[in-house]
Amino acid sequence: MRTRDLRLLIGIIIVVAFSAWVAWPNNPGIHILGFNRDIELRQGLDLQGGMQVLLEADVPATQPVTRDQIEAARGIVENRVNGLGVAEPNVQVVGDRRILVELPGIKDPDEAVAAFKGTGLLEFIDTNGVYLKPGTEVKTTFGQPGSAGTGATPSATAAEPSASPAATSAMATQPASTPTPAIAGTPAAAAANSTPQVQGTATPAAQPTPTPASETVYRTVLTGKDLKNAGVQINPQTQEPNVTFEFKPEAAKTFADFTSANVGKYLAIVLDKKVISCPVINTAIPEGSGYIEGKFTLAEAKGLAVQLKYGALPVPLKVIERRTVGPTLGQDSVARSLRAGIIGLIIVLLFMLIYYRLPGVLADLALLTYALVTIAIFKLVPVTLTLPGITGFLLSVGMAVDANILIFERMKEELRHGKSLAAAVEAGFDRAWTSIRDSNLSTLINCVILFWFGSQYGASAVKGFAVTLFLGVVVSMFTAITVTRTFMRATLAASGDSLREKHQLMGI
Amino acid sequence: MLDIIGKRKWYFLISAMVIIPGLVAMGISFARWGTPFRLSIDFTSGSLLEVRFREKVQPLQVREVVESQGIVDPSIQTVGDGATVVIRTKPMEAEVKQAVESALEKRFGELTEMRFETVGPSVGREVTQAATLAIIAGSLAILGFIVFAWRKVPNSMRYGVCATAATLHDILVTLGFFSIMSLLLGWEADALFLTALLTVVGFSVQDTIVVFDRIRENIPKRRGEPYELVVNRSLLETLHRSLATQLNAIFVMIAILLFGGATIKQFVAVLLVGMISGSYSSIFNAVPLLVVWEKGELANLFRPGRRQPAPTV
Fold first, then answer.
1. A333 and B142: CB-CB below 8 Å?
2. A344/B251 touch (CB, cutoff 8 Å), yes or no
3. Which of residues 341-400 of A touch B (CB under 8 A)?
4. What is the mean pLDDT of residues A310-339?
5. Mean pLDDT, to the nearest integer, of A475-490?
6. What is the per-residue pLDDT across B26-84, written as a single tens digit (0 to 9) for each?
7. Strands in A5-121 per DSSP E
């Protein structure tokens, strides 16, 4: 055996040993001198269950979205996601105006979606004593060009009529008994108080048409930015979820001042320029906290609380694609794929063994090497494994043996033509090479096209397939040719003359 | 020597018998949906909700409940044991989905949401565009590859055309198979279907190339032998390889099909059918076609009694 082959053999053994260590299911990871890297097989959302959401800036296509805006939006979305308590979320900007959110193993996907949508711009507005029906779209001084923004002196309101006639009629018809909506101290305080909050909604019959948004620009007293914290509590009286909030100290003072100056009037709570509730101020609220009642579902309330906590988005977002896989389906897929993969691999191993005998054994060893090295690469890169990805990997197992089959068939022919064993082996490898190269090259080109296609978000399932097939083909070129040839030469060298005449061992 | 080439007209007949039902199915589908098979929400945009109930449910009743939530023209399909239902609608907001789910729970008892996918119109459009580009790029790559592989061979055009014809055969078989399944079982073509198709085509070309390679190698070695005989010999020499390789790939695919995850089955089935077709077409279509061309019998292939018996050795 030539020294070059010996070196190769040693190299292969080292690679196999390292790969086996990496591929070992409970690999502890690398932690040397402050370098920490966990080594684990990453499972895609279709395997572990979870949700993938593609968000897009909800502005007209002609309106540009700056890099800063989308990056800031990404940060806020990430905070909101973290606020939901999802493990290992992935939030990334894709393209110019889109954000991709991946939430593995999420329990309540609807709650998460509720938390992304809308800008989450909360405002407390001075309604000038007018009742605003929930759902009314309003214009406010906040974010208006030329306005001083939060806490501005009511300069903007000065030019407006104090109340439109329609709104006045609304005020006049307030029944004083409906308990919702209410703004008050914390719900606990409200409960202890035990007197129901007395303020009202208009009866439907007397409901005026809401003031058209174009007419009035209301003054923004405070915004979501002034909040220190937000949460969800179930109102003990109504059993409905309320969103609780707490102002920062400065804002708490503004809030206290405003409420004490406007007892008996309304304070509308506006989310994304839409009124969500319009309670009457019963008493001054000095403690700087309160809650919002808005006929929320629990998911909505949680979503809103998360939005309030992490601030408003610079641009509104909408969901343009969403995929959810339940965890049971995912686990089922993992178990099944694993079983299918092992069965497939065993069949191929047996086939090669029975059909090609001695070279088959060597090809099997090369195939196992291939599997180990590929799994190790998956873990090191890391490649996120998905169901199509596993299929791609298994398909590349087929490609890996294809190279060996081409070589062995060539070898058998050369033997039949009377060549010596060693010469036949070399000829087999040499002459099969062009076929192997060509066929693998075309598969690789195909993979590149598929990878590009899979980069489109609607087609992301394709990406996993392209990646694993590509890697598999590259590794198989190494294992099916270099590894098998080295094993072959080593076997021939080790057996000396004893193999020469035993052609039946070569599968002839 | 086993004479494969001599029976060539039978192979073309078998191919036709496989392809024609597929073409018919595609025609029916085209009349029904305007596409050769049903397209998934990946391309059309829309929502897909898969829920599992405790017990078997009737699709018609499910439809009633879904429609009662104001959803226009939903498609309802039960899967497996009948307790799992796939509901397809126009793009659906999370709130609407929740309303549908609670209405279903009210009627049929507790349910588990297995899958919920929504693809907005803009994403659907983009995927369709990307798919078109991928098909064009894939076809160009394969044609380019064929041209490249035969750049130094006399009559290279002829080899290229025969390889392309075999590839078209595989595409037709695969599309036809999918169209039939689409009609019978409601299969929908998604992004993975296209992936399977491109992969199948790539593999099919490789199979053809291995045989053609051998013909190229044998022609100078066996001067004086009739072309048909050289071709037949080359085919037999590579038959082991073709069968061994294909059997391996087919075994793996069958293993995934039988034991693998449910969501991947369509993808693997398409790969499997395509691969079988690919092996068949390279041995029984591409190579015989070369001989047909060489002998100039394209025009009267199926005219009885004119064909000479194949020379034997």
1. no
2. yes
3. 341, 343-345, 347-348, 351-352, 355, 387-388, 391, 394-395, 397-398
4. 81
5. 88
6. 999 999 888 899 898 888 899 999 898 988 888 889 999 999 988 888 888 887 778 88
7. 30-32, 35-37, 42-43, 50-57, 90-94, 98-104
Per-residue pLDDT of B93-102, as tens digits, reads: 888 888 899 9
Distance of alpha carbon A498 from its chain centroid, rounded? 60
Residue A497, pLDDT above cutoff 60: yes
Task: Specify whether B275 is located in the same domain as B158.
Answer: yes
**pLDDT exceeds cutoff 60 at B205:** yes
In terms of domains, do A226 and A348 share one?
A: no
Query: Does residue B232 share a domain with residue B106?
Result: no
Average pLDDT over residues A62-69: 83
Burial (CB < 10 A; 0-12, 13-18, 19+), residue A463, is: buried
Cβ of A442 within 8 Å of Cβ of B268? The answer is: no
Name the domain boundary from B58, B86, B119: B119
Q: Which residues on B lie below 8 Å from A344 (Cβ)? A: 251-252, 255-256
CB contact under 8 A, A110 and B241: no
Check which CATH number belongs to the domain holding A232 and give it.
Answer: 3.30.1360
Q: Please tell me the pTM assigned to this model.
A: 0.76
A476 and A340, same domain (yes or no): yes
Interface A-B, measured as beta-carbon pairs within 8 A, has a size of 217
User: Are both B109 and B243 inside the same structural domain?
Assistant: no
Q: Is B149 on the interface with A (CB under 8 A)?
A: yes
CA distance B102 to chain A (A): 13
> Is A123 within the bounds of a domain?
yes
Q: Are A144 and A192 members of one domain?
A: yes
What pLDDT shows up at residue B277? 94
B249:A344 CB<8 A: no
pLDDT at A480: 84
Residue B168 lies in a domain: yes
Does residue A156 have a pLDDT over 80? no
Q: Using the beta-carbon criterion (under 8 Å), do B244 and A434 form an inter-chain contact?
A: no
Q: Chain A residues with CB inside 8 Å of B194's CB?
A: 453, 459, 462
| Percentage of residues of chain B with pLDDT beyond 90 | 24
Write down the mean pLDDT value for chain B: 86
In this structure, the answer to whether residues B143 and B224 fall within a common structural domain is yes
User: Do A362 and A428 contact (CB within 8 A), yes or no?
Assistant: no
Read off the tokens for B236. 């037999």
- Asked if residues A325 and B48 have their Cβ atoms less than 8 Å apart, the reply is no
**Token pair for A304:** 């809103």
Same domain, B145 and B254: yes
Q: Are residues A168 and A265 in the same domain?
A: yes
Higher pLDDT, B168 or A113: B168
Tally of domains within chain B: 2
How many domains, in total, are found in chain A?
A: 2
Close Cβ partners of B48 (under 8 Å, ≥ 6 residues apart): B40, B41, B86, B87, B88, B115, B116, B117, B118
Are B259 and A339 in contact (CB < 8 Å)? yes
Q: Are residues A26 and A155 in the same domain?
A: no
CA–CA separation, B91 and B123 (whole Å):
11
Residue B303: which pLDDT band, with cuts at 50, 70 and 90?
Answer: low
Residue A249, domain extent: 117-294
Q: Cβ–Cβ of A388/B124 closer than 8 Å?
A: no
CA distance B105 to B205: 52
* Boundaries of domain holding B85: 46-119
